[in-house]
Design a protein that fits this description.
The protein has 88 residues and is mainly alpha-helical. Helix content is 75%, strand content 0%.
Length: 88
């Protein structure tokens, strides 16, 4: 519960940093999506013992696909962002 509550702060922070074209926003976004996919996977496959496909499992698959896509795209997006200590 603490993790998902913390997303109410970290998700907008990542969005703000990305809007400011900061590399930290990209890194935070990658970390958030990857950890969210893992947390949702735990919740949907370990804690939820319902067999078969559930709405939560579909959502978890979407979040996982987004995490993989962002992590794969990050190296190509990084050059357009500002690095720490870089003016501008």
């Amino acid at each position: 519960m603490v993790y998902f509550t913390s997303l109410t702060v970290f998700d907008p922070l990542a969005a703000l940093l990305l809007a400011m074209r900061r590399i930290e926003g990209l890194l935070l976004g990658c970390a958030l999506l990857a950890s969210d996919a893992a947390a949702n996977g735990y919740a949907n496959y370990v804690l939820d013992t319902t067999p078969g496909i559930t709405p939560g499992r579909i959502g978890q698959a979407v979040v996982t696909a987004l995490a993989v896509a962002l992590i794969a795209a990050a190296p190509k997006a990084a050059p357009w962002l500002h690095s720490p200590g870089c003016a501008g």
